[in-house]
Amino acid sequence: MVINLSNECSLVCDWISEIRDVQIQTDRMRFRRNLERIGEIAAYEISRQLVYEEKEVQTPLGIAPSRVLKEQPVLATILRAGLPLHQGLLNYFDKADNAFISAYRKHNMDGSFEISLDYISCPELENRVVIISDPMLATGSSLVKTIQYLREEGHPREIHVVAAIACAVGIEYVQRSEPNVKIWCGAIDEELTAKGYIVPGLGDAGDLAFGTKVQM
């Protein structure tokens, strides 16, 4: 299942426009905050699909019937670019467990690249709901490898992916490799360059959020 959060007009469309805009995106604080906002909207939408249980709450004047999440999800993110989007999810799922994965493109001299995963820190994942944040879903290869890496720590019951911008090519790859994963994105672009960059996209989300890195 793929949900494009900008299919219908909402503030998400404003925020996507700002993170793409070459003038506005240079404001790092604003760029991070817009990604955070997209994460917050995605968290709300995902929350509507989770399991709730009945609970009675004591108020100053009596007993109120209510519904609360039966189980907190695990929020996973790919360092470093995924941190603002992750924070948006965490703002809403503020009791959630968290997982962090280091996944990056290791570039070769011929222009090709491999996905390198060096680090993982996560709680128990067996039969849990896992929400993975990655601002740019381009080829989908790093995401699929991340999911496989997480499964070595336990088999989640449900996996949701949140991306600010996704490429149709990457979405198709993820769906072929992981057909049960639900993808939530702020926008979908059609073009992917030979080097694996989304067009029109927004550039390098990690550099825009935290500064240009020297490592390739």
TrEMBL record:
This is Uracil phosphoribosyltransferase. It is an enzyme of class 2 (transferase). It catalyses: UMP + diphosphate = 5-phospho-alpha-D-ribose 1-diphosphate + uracil. SUPFAM superfamilies: PRTase-like. It comes from Niastella yeongjuensis. Transmembrane segments: none annotated. Its cofactor is Mg(2+). Its EC number is 2.4.2.9. GO terms for molecular function: GTP binding; uracil phosphoribosyltransferase activity. Pathway: Pyrimidine metabolism; UMP biosynthesis via salvage pathway; UMP from uracil: step 1/1. Residues 11-212 form the Phosphoribosyltransferase domain. InterPro entries: PRTase-like, PRTase_dom, PyrR_bifunctional. It comes from the Bacteria.
